[in-house]
Amino acid sequence: MVSRANMLPRGQKERADFPRFGLGRFANRFPANPARVRFEVRGDVGQPLTITALDEGVARHEQMSDFHCVTSWSVCNLRWSGVRFADFHKAVVVPRVAPADDARLVVFRGEDGYRSIMPLDDLLADDVLLADSLEGRPLGIDHGAPLRLVAPAHYGYKNVKHIVAIEYWRDRRNYHFAWPYPSFMDHPRGRVAFEERGTIFPAWMLRGLYSLLIPSAVWRFARALRRHEAKRG
Ligand SMILES: Nc1nc2c(c(=O)[nH]1)N[C@H]1C(S)=C(S)[C@@H](COP(=O)(O)O)O[C@H]1N2
Ligand SMILES: [Mo]
After folding, report:
1. Phi, psi of 84, deg, nearest 5
2. Residues 91-95: contacts with CB under 8 Å, at least 24 apart
3. For a tag site, which of 51, 101, 114, 157 has the least CB within 10 Å?
4. Is any ligand 1 atom within 6 A of the Cβ of residue 160?
5. Any ligand 1 atom below 6 A from CB of 112
């Protein structure tokens, strides 16, 4: 993907660093086994399946893409690698898990309890990756080890880190946004190009409010990571 450093999407500002980031209650939660990919594919499916090797029968793929947090910061030109979600879906999920034809909503769950929901059709885009590597190195615990979603056309909050489950559902009944955060923070699609930051409130308002929270969230997530690493020695 071509860099958009000079023409970021509306309402975004470039950052030089790539901070560990998210909603406050997830700052102190870390994966127990960051070196080992292990997640379940389940939901309205014929046969749930536990995956322990990402690229079994699926070609690896590397891409450069920009990353856009809904709070208005962006990082340009990140080099991710892993497998394309579409390839994984076609080569593994369809034949071995057999989601119902009308199970076209996909929920990603992180080991920290974070989750997001996306339409399957959005996930089948060429630039959506299940990534296990960033800048040529295995993902760190800061950026989603052992495995994260990279969906560059969607705001960061759809890009779930520390994936432990991918669920195909017919409806949203089994999905709740990250309590206690209000659901207006969770747009059903969250596309950056359409500034789908949330629901109820206009994008400019969310952008303005959220941007005030960036410094304290960056600081909080960095402090939690430092403490976690100190504990692990
Ligand atoms: N598991 C998990 N995934 C998550 C989050 C989180 O707190 N936990 N935060 C989301 C948000 S709001 C953003 S902007 C990105 C931040 O990714 P980074 O920490 O690699 O910068 O992760 C997203 N995915
Ligand atoms: Mo975000």
Report:
1. -65, 135
2. 91/57, 91/58, 92/41, 92/49, 92/51, 92/56, 92/57, 92/58, 93/41, 93/166, 93/168
3. 101
4. yes
5. yes
pLDDT tens readout for residues 6-56? 689 999 999 999 999 999 999 999 999 999 999 999 999 999 999 999 878
> What is the distance in A from the centroid of ligand 2 to the CA of 62?
23
CA R_g for the chain: 17
CB of 110 sitting under 6 A from ligand 1: yes
Decide whether any atom of ligand 1 lies within 6 Å of the 146 Cβ: no
Task: Check whether 4 has a pLDDT greater than 70.
Answer: no
The DSSP string of 39-91 is EEEEESBSS-EEES-TTTTS-EEEEEEEEE-TTSEEEEEEEEEEEEHHHHIII
- pLDDT score recorded for residue 6: 60
Reported as a single tens digit per residue, the pLDDT across 101-149 is: 999 999 999 999 999 999 999 999 999 999 999 999 999 999 999 999 9
What is the number of the ligand 1 atom nearest to the C-alpha of 162?
A: 1
**Segment (H or E) for 208:** helix 203-211
Q: What is the pLDDT of residue 83?
A: 98
User: How far apart, in whole angstroms, are the C-alpha atoms of residue 152 and residue 131?
Assistant: 12
